Amino acid sequence: MAQILCRNVVLGYEGKAVVQNLNFEVNRGDYLCIVGENGSGKSTLIKALLRLKKPMSGEICMGDGLEADGIGYLPQQTVVQKDFPASVREIVLSGCLGRFGWRPFYGKAEKEMAAENMEKLGITHLAKRCYRELSGGQQQRVLLARALCATRYMLLLDEPVSGLDPAAVQEMYDLLGKLNHEDKITIIMVSHDIHAAAACSDHILHISEEPLFFGTKEDYVKTDIGKSYLSMTGGERRGKDA
Ligand code: ADP
Questions:
Q1: Nearest CA to ligand 1 atom 14
Q2: pLDDT tens digits for 11-30?
Q3: Which of 18, 158, 193, 209 has the most ligand 1 atoms within 8 A of CB, as the residue to mutate?
Q4: What does the pLDDT look like over 162-175, one tens digit per residue?
Q5: Does ligand 1 have an atom closer than 6 angstroms to the CB of 38?
């Protein structure tokens, strides 16, 4: 059984469809990149996967142990978030809220999980530092550790490398590749960088008003839409095998 199965899904606002005929599935251990032009509905699809938005029609089923609140979500960074006046440890710990339920203090299990994920992402030494004083790459690692506290199965990332310098971009892709390969965490990443997406993922969903493609990366790069999108959006090849 797939972790996510999207059947004939239509998403939109106020009765007006943004994306139609969405049919795709995500299985445990997959690395799916969702690509498409600005305004094509990528963020809308993310909201639907997080159950923050109901499809106008069709259904999104979750299985294989996954529930919508068991997805670790890394939102697009906003200016306000970048300036958040909390310690790294507090931010990572707050990822446990969904899983353990709200309580006025954190218990042993949450603290252990936060410590484990900070260690995994190499930010233990930053635990007491204030989030807003960190570099962009360090901040993303903190948010990734936070997202990991919310899940054992799946990370959903919205443009996780935007605004990062090239070294931090590579570091982020390496970390995600490692979590996918070693910890078998399923990754769904929204990206506008098709070159990086083609380099690091194993499946691609290219959306527009109508879905243009869903399948393996190998098949995508052979299609007309894949070829034209790859040549149109030139730029540095990045990702794990760049
Ligand atoms: P992307 O993430 O691919 O840039 P979005 O999912 O943000 O695209 O937006 C898809 C379309 O839905 C756009 O035309 C956008 O204007 C519209 N849209 C997004 N959010 C809302 C909203 N809250 N109300 C009405 N229309 C929206």
A1: 39
A2: 999 999 999 999 999 999 99
A3: 18
A4: 889 999 999 999 99
A5: yes
Q: By CB neighbour count within 10 A (0-12 exposed, 13-18 middle, 19+ buried), where does 208 fall?
A: middle
- Helices (H) and strands (E) counted in the chain, each on its own, are 10, 9
Joined together, the tokens standing for residue 14 give 């106020």
* Strand-pair partners of 73: 156
Pairwise CA distance, residues 158 & 241, whole Å: 21
Going by CA atoms, what residue is nearest to atom 7 of ligand 1?
43
Could you tell me the distance, in angstroms and rounded to a whole number, from the CA of residue 52 to the centre of ligand 1?
14
43 pocket-lining for ligand 1 (C-beta < 6 Å): yes
Task: Give the largest CA-CA distance in the chain.
Answer: 54
Predicted model pTM = 0.87
What proportion of the chain, given as a percentage, has pLDDT over 70? 90
Paired tokens of 152: 């054992």
CA–CA separation, 47 and 206 (whole Å): 17
